Amino acid sequence: MRWLVYLYPKTWKERYGNELTDILKQTDTSFKTIIDLLIGIIDAWHMELKERNAYGYRISQVLVVVTVINLFIVLKLKPLGEVIEVEIAATIAVLIAMASLFLAAVALVVSIFKFGRDGLTLKPKLSKVAFGLMGSYAVFMVTFLVLIN
After folding, report:
1. Separation between Cα atoms, residue 104 and residue 97, nearest integer Å
2. What is the dihedral of CA 52, 55, 56, 57, to 10 degrees?
3. Model confidence over 118-137: pLDDT tens digits?
4. Burial of 88 by CB count in 10 Å (0-12 exposed, 13-18 middle, 19+ buried)?
5. 8-state DSSP, 29
6. Chain-centre distance for alpha carbon 116
7. How far is CA 29 from CA 4, 35, 37, 104, 120, in A?
8. What is the model's pTM?
9. CA distances to 52, 116, 126 from 121, in Å
10. Are residues 105 and 32 in contact, defined by beta-carbon separation less than 8 angstroms?
11. pLDDT tens-digit profile of 34-62?
């Protein structure tokens, strides 16, 4: 029955695994205990995935806002000449894009040095930040290209 402990998420096992193993050693094996452990495993994974999704959700909110701003620019709901100087906005957009690209490259290099091959995956938060910055680079470059045309 102790093998069920290995089905819990890694962070949960690190925090509670030894304690649960000790309790299972003292408890008789029963159908009710196994069902209770399975429900606990489902609940632990639900909480783990819920926490992971919170980080991606925040980034998606930022990307939605930036996309809406770009949509207003592309659709030209109001002539840009009346609202802002197009050259200044294009310069700001390209500067933000270049800063995003530089920060993304730095974050990715640091992630690779810190985590090795896992630095190229989306497991470390630093890699997620790097890929998010690459996304903002793309968004601001598109904004720049739209503004100069």
Report:
1. 10
2. 110
3. 878 888 887 888 888 888 88
4. exposed
5. P
6. 19
7. 12, 11, 11, 52, 43
8. 0.43
9. 15, 10, 10
10. no
11. 888 888 888 887 777 655 554 455 455 55
Name 63's Cβ contacts closer than 8 Å, sequence gap at least 6: 135, 136, 139
Going 17 to 19 to 20 to 22, the CA torsion angle's sign is positive
What single-letter amino acid sits at 38?
Answer: L
Task: Give CA 8 to chain center in angstroms.
Answer: 22
Q: How far apart are CA 133 and CA 96, in angstroms?
A: 10
End-to-end CA distance of the chain: 67
Enter the tokens of residue 90. Answer: 């294009």
Instruction: Provide the token pair at 18.
Output: 């030894």
